[in-house]
Amino acid sequence: MENIDDVVQLLSNFIRINTTNPPGNEEEGVLFLEDILLKAGLPTEVYSPAPKRANLLSRIKGKKRGKAMVLLGHIDVVPARAEEWDVDPFGGEIKDGYIYGRGTIDMKGQVICQLIAFIDLFRRGVEPERDIIFLATCDEETGGKNGVEFMLNEVKELKDVSFVLSEGGFIIKEGESIHGQVSVSEKMLSQFMIRATGTGGHGSKPHKDNANEKVVEAAHRILNHKWPIKNTAIVNAYMNGIFRDKTVAGMKYKTLKEAMGNKKFVEFIDGDPLYNALLRNTVTLTVIRGGEKVNVIPTEAQAYFDARLLPGEKHETFFKRIRSLAGKGVEVLPLKEGLSHTALSGYNSKPFKGIKDAVIKTWGRIPVLPFITTGATDLRYFRKHGITAYGFFPIVVTNDDLMRMHGKNERISIENLREGVEGIKGILDFLASYDPL
Ligand SMILES: [Zn+2]
């Protein structure tokens, strides 16, 4: 087995390669990973969609052609505001049993664990039933155009693989309770902006045609709308798996359907950002623009909203609602790049059971449940082609740990890295033995 200190150092070095997207600059990250694969004796292919952007593919040949299995990971990260962090977000600092840095959880840590497990499978001389592909992509954080979308067009084989593993779920520990979440779908992006124009003027003489005030009032109506709680099949299975026969919000939980009728339970959902997002469409005000000077009434104002819809919802119905909430006086404009489709992978499948068995081997008989990722991931591109694609990183974290993702002081523990490598090895052992046909 590889030395954990080496894995820690590898991730620390990888964090130091700044792949903040935009602009990305993932090429350096690809060369870093390629070097490790080549030294291990594995073949590599680099695909470059644009200057300084790159995607990397490596392969362990299987007994039969076609229907490969893919370990997918993106190597770009979201921006980090260094002044808010206690450490340099791109310093790869190791302290108190953690590696700190932008991307440690999302998702350079998982990429390194997948790389180590992939190389380990190759070194052990395992010949899988089907090819196993290691795929590291760029551009996930701004939508995947140069990354997965580009690769699906460039390497036709990827549209016909049988399984993809990437990010989206973890093993969650809250107090005594522990469960695995294997993401089989994700919420649908439905981002939009509202815009108002008005008459300018001096701040000392207010009037009723103020662009800022129109946007603020419309935003207020949109944000005050309470979206109904909806019981979708996956979330039903997920929440029943966690809560059945436990005491939740002072009540004995039997089924989600029954709990939804309880006022206390609904209050509990309202107060929990994750469960709220799993059970409702959400609309978040993220950007406000209007005015430049304190004594000048601006002639235009805008507000941007990040909205995420439950599987099965329709953009048209949603925007009809938003337009009626916004009322007259503002325009509602869906953002072209901010709309996504949704598809789900079944969870009554052999890969789901394979992952479950691998988890149980390490952590005992904990529930391993289907889950919906509230954010968007590259897996949606594969699901659209009907490919079974799961988001899962087998490390034990709290929901609190996950709040650091896209936030400040993102970190992963050394213990998590050890778990990640071992867990993915277990999943790879299953994938190597699995013939989808
Ligand atoms: Zn990610």
Biggest β-sheet, characterized?
Answer: 6 strands, mixed
CATH class of the largest domain: Alpha Beta
The geometry reads as globular
Number of strands: 21
Helix segment tally: 14
Distance between the termini: 32 Å
- Could you tell me the radius of gyration in angstroms? 23 Å
Helical content (DSSP H or I, runs of 4+): 25-40%
Compute the average pLDDT.
Answer: 96
Q: Which cofactors or ions or other ligands sit in this model? A: zinc ion
Main β-sheet, spatial strand arrangement: 1-2-6-3-7-19
Q: Low-confidence stretches at least 5 residues in length (pLDDT < 50)?
A: none
How would you describe this structure to a colleague?
It contains 14 helices and 21 strands. It is α/β, with parallel strands linked by helices. It has 3 domains: 4-185 and 342-433, Zn peptidases (Aminopeptidase); 188-221 and 283-341, Alpha-Beta Plaits (2-Layer Sandwich); 228-280, no CATH class. It has a 6-stranded mixed sheet with strand order 1-2-6-3-7-19. It has a 4-stranded mixed sheet with strand order 18-9-8-20. Strands 14-16-10-17 form a 4-stranded antiparallel sheet, covered by helices on one side. It starts with a helix and ends with a helix. The site of zinc ion has 5 residues, from helix 3.
